[in-house]
What we know:
The complex is a heterodimer.
Chain A: E1 8-17, E2 22-29, E3 40-45, E4 49-53, E5 65-70, H1 74-80, E6 87-94, H2 100-103, E7 107-113, H3 117-128, E8 136-143, H4 155-161, E9 165-171, E10 181-182, E11 199-204, H5 207-220, E12 227-230, E13 246-247, E14 250-251, H6 252-255, E15 258-260, H7 261-264
Chain B: E1 2-5, H1 9-19, E2 21-28, E3 31-36, H2 55-58, E4 62-69, E5 72-74, E6 83-89, H3 90-103, H4 118-124, E7 128-132, E8 158-162, E9 166-171, H5 174-182, E10 187-188, H6 191-207, H7 217-223, H8 229-236, H9 242-246, E11 253-259, E12 264-271, H10 292-311, H11 321-325, H12 332-341
Parallel strand pairs in B: 2-6, 6-7, 7-8
Antiparallel strand pairs in B: 1-9, 1-10, 2-3, 4-5, 4-12, 8-9, 11-12
Amino acid sequence: MNNPYYPIDTVLEDVITETPTIKTFCLKPVRPVRFKSGQFMQLTVPGVGEAPFTPSSDPNIAEKMEITILKTGKVTDALHELGPGAKLGLRGPFGKGYPLEKLEGKEVVVVGGGVGLAPMRSLLYGLFDDPSKYKRISIKFGAREPAELCFRGQYNEWVNLSENIDLTTTIDVPHPEWDGKVGLVTTLLDDLDINITDSYALSCGPEIMLKFVTLKLLEVGYKPPQIYLSMNRKMSCGMGKCGRCNVGHYYLCVDGPDMCYDKIKHVPNVFG
Amino acid sequence: MIRIEKERIDEFIRALMETWSVYAPARDGKNTLFAPVEDPAGIDHGIFNTDKSPKEIFFPHSEVLFEFEGGEIKKVERDARPIAVWGLRGCDARSLRLLDKVFGSAWQKPDNDMFEDPYWKEKYDDSIIFGTACNEPRSTCFCNWFGAGPHDGAGMDVKVVDTGEAFILDPVSEKGKKYIGSLKGWAEATKKDVTKMKAAAKEADKAMGEVFGMDGIQEKMADLFLKPVWNDIGAKCVNCGACAFICSTCHCFDVQDEGKKGKKGKRIRIWDTCMFPIFTMEASGHNPRDMSKDRLRQRFMHKFSYFINNYDEHLCTGCGRCVIVCPVNLDIREVVREVMACEA
């Protein structure tokens, strides 16, 4: 029997500094790891522990994987100190992933905040595989300050891929080096030129952001079945057993982490 | 059904020890627990439901998942003999069955993405459970709330009834029937034994408290999620987690590494509980179950609402351990009654 607790040996091939606190770790597992956008991995730093992360790389590439990580805790602190050649471990993928098939023919709005842009990039790569399958791909990214906007160097490349792709960004508070939009990411949803009845919105970010993005989406006319949220919480096992990530009777690790809001809207403290 | 005179019970256990790794109730200082049997003469057959639950036989408090050295993962070898448990009570036998739904193969459906847990399966799947019927239930016992009773054999392979002068072994499962059928040199239970068993079961049933109707608790709990009843109950709870650690069905855990970064070490699975604030505290500092009452509510919701959604049963078998051990006398039965009496 396969042991789902055993990590696959993985070598850290490269580290890309994205922002002062966020790095992308380019990983090469000894055997290919196939995953769907939105599914997550447990990444091991031997002797330190493991923690759950959603890859930020193209789901069509199984031989290598990129994970974009904010330095914020025990495992991530240790990761941020590592350089190429370090031995790591990967187990997974876990969870269901984004429902790409449902998005076909629709106007897709992708809302990301802070390090929540990382899983969204994997979703975007999935969508960019054949942008003509979707009526529109509208990307809304927000961060606290310009330096924290992940993957900024790639934005032009993305919108140039196809005519139906657009991207807007905002930062929370004014900054001397920023002449773009200022305000929380929800402000990008104020004047949507989207046919909402024919649209899906997917969002990833801190829970407080997800809460206000959801409220805004509902306000502008989205119905709960049209909203998908990446609900990422502390998860030790990834297999619906360890008991941490319960939201109502769901285990986010198995039933999510990308949950249709319609499924969880009845849970009174859904955003913690 | 076979009959084992009490003076010959060591002989029976010794035979069992030839092929099985046998666990039985034992004393550890002031506490009672299940321990590996080294000498059958040392088994205290008089111990009622042990202080510590027997879940740790199959789901140890701390279990090494693997060891690593450099980049190599090393499997941890364990005693290859199958496990036999002697003297398990009905509530605990049913608790193991509930845990088997979570960790084992008992709840596999075509579309539910269940992961089987190899560490549980390698111990539980080949085990044999000799359960002892309870002739004298405690005031804290409430297995009858969950459709069981002190002489119920569910979850056991063989039910053992103490008739005073003998143990009567009544096979319940196919595995139990096969084992009992394979034995030689033991007399069949007599008509008198059967009469005594029936009388003991009747007496035991009488000693149980009144059954409390649990119908509708799943929906009721969900409806009451935001009601002040949880503040009232939560005000008493000190979040010590004793209830969860002593519980025969609580199974939350954490996965931790021990050792030197990048060099040599172990990955360990260790019991954890939703009662502790750090259980759900995220690296950012955000905690979805920030307040004491949130955590207490989670434990009860898991037992009496979520688990029914996911596994079609209550995650409680009425063993009463938490009632005994709670330092602030929070009685799970009172909590259920209080919640059920609330207006939604």
